[in-house]
Design brief:
- The chain is of the alpha+beta class and 322 residues long.
- It has 2 domains: 13-108, Phosphorylase Kinase, domain 1 (2-Layer Sandwich), CATH 3.30.200.20; 114-320, Aminoglycoside phosphotransferase (APH), C-terminal lobe (Aminoglycoside 3'-phosphotransferase, Chain: A, domain 2, Alpha-Beta Complex), CATH 3.90.1200.
- The chain has helices spanning 9-18, 71-82, 86-89, 127-142, 154-166, 177-180, 184-192, 195-209, 245-258, 263-271, 279-295, 306-320; strands spanning 25-30, 38-44, 49-54, 95-99, 104-108, 114-115, 214-216, 225-228, 231-234, 241-243.
- The strands form 3 sheets. The protein has a 5-stranded antiparallel β-sheet with strand order 1-2-3-5-4, sandwiched between helices. A 3-stranded antiparallel β-sheet has the order 6-8-9, covered by helices on one side. It has a two-stranded antiparallel ribbon with strand order 7-10.
- Helix 5 runs antiparallel to helix 8 (195-209) and helix 11 (279-295) packs antiparallel against helix 12 (306-320).
Length: 322
């Protein structure tokens, strides 16, 4: 079977037919510019539509970066576990089929929604949306998982660990930082030479890799928050696992800072998280996420002037070192 990114309407039609579903595909097109997987929207002549995802042995946006092809199986498992919680059924897509042989995941189309990536360009998140995003995260973490379920997602965590806690602080990691912003490499040296900072980053990385009993989304940031018809949905949990809830909370907080939201918004997010959590640990995870989004491969469309990046580095150090 050819790769999903190369499908035409006839390929999509044949695939739906093999599943016993309605056919008559009139359009197949990209459903989003994701980092990890190829995601296509299939639209039928009767206006019914589906979302179809496929994983490869590399990152879709960064083909030079190897990635576990099994990650889509882990995403499906996250949805299966999460949707046991009635409150999450309404905010996650319904699985239609999963073809483990070809790593194809067919799910319902939530609609022509928009993620929250516009926050990086100056849009501000509303209090209503922020409260919903915090509340959904609470439900993910409060979801009960049977003791006989093992959701480790070890290979994806190894990949993410490398790109969060290791590669960004390497002396030579393949990225020419001064091509992103002149002077950025000097700022990196400021972090690398701070032994208290690098030691704590290493310790946080070990916590991230450790097993836990809490369902974790694994990539809870604006591109994983989807708004359709005034309702918030959560998507793309291919980095999901059982671990520490503070990791998810920290990632969300980091992206509020990275999109220039003020402390009041960060506090509001934490106030609307329903459940106990370690605030200090969450903020430390946030500090690492801020650092890796500036020094790592997963760059964001944020302001890249040196003064702004310096302020973010100082915030990262303040959050990580206590």
């Amino acid at each position: 079977m050819k790769a999903l990114r190369d499908w035409n309407t006839e390929d999509a039609d044949q695939y739906l037919k093999s599943l016993g579903l309605d056919t008559g595909v009139r359009q197949i097109s990209s459903a989003g510019d994701g980092n990890m997987n190829c995601t296509q929207r299939i639209v039928l002549s009767n206006e019914k539509s589906y979302i179809l995802k496929q994983s490869s042995d590399f990152c879709e946006k960064y083909p030079e970066v190897p990635a576990p092809i099994t990650r889509l199986k882990e995403e499906v498992l996250f949805y299966d576990l999460a949707r046991v919680n009635p409150k999450l059924k309404d905010v996650t897509p319904n699985k239609i089929s999963f073809d483990e042989k070809n790593f194809l995941f067919l799910m319902e189309d939530l609609g022509q929604g928009k993620d929250f990536s516009s926050l990086y360009s100056g849009d501000r998140i509303s209090q209503v949306d922020l409260k919903a995003i915090a509340s959904i995260l609470s439900e993910i973490h409060n979801t009960k998982i049977s003791k006989d379920v093992v959701f480790d997602n070890h290979e994806m965590r190894k990949l993410n660990h490398a790109h969060m806690y290791d590669i960004p602080l390497q002396a030579e990691n393949g990225l020419i930082l001064d091509e992103i912003t002149p002077g950025l490499n000097d700022l990196k040296d400021m972090l690398v030479k701070n032994s208290d900072y690098t030691q704590r980053v290493k310790e946080l990385g070990e916590m991230y890799l450790a097993s836990g009993d809490c369902l974790v989304h694994g990539d809870y940031y604006p591109n994983s928050w989807l708004k359709c018809d005034e309702k918030i949905f959560i998507i793309d949990p291919e980095f999901g696992f059982q671990g520490v809830k503070e990791f998810d909370i920290g990632v969300a907080i980091a992206h509020l800072y990275l999109s220039d939201h003020d402390e009041e918004i960060v506090d509001l997010f934490m106030e609307n998280y329903q459940g106990d959590f370690d605030k200090l640990l969450s903020l430390q995870f946030a500090g690492v996420e801020i650092m890796r989004r500036i020094l790592g491969y997963a760059q964001l469309p944020i302001k890249k002037d040196l003064e702004n990046l310096k302020n973010l580095f100082e915030l990262s150090m303040k959050l990580v070192i206590v």
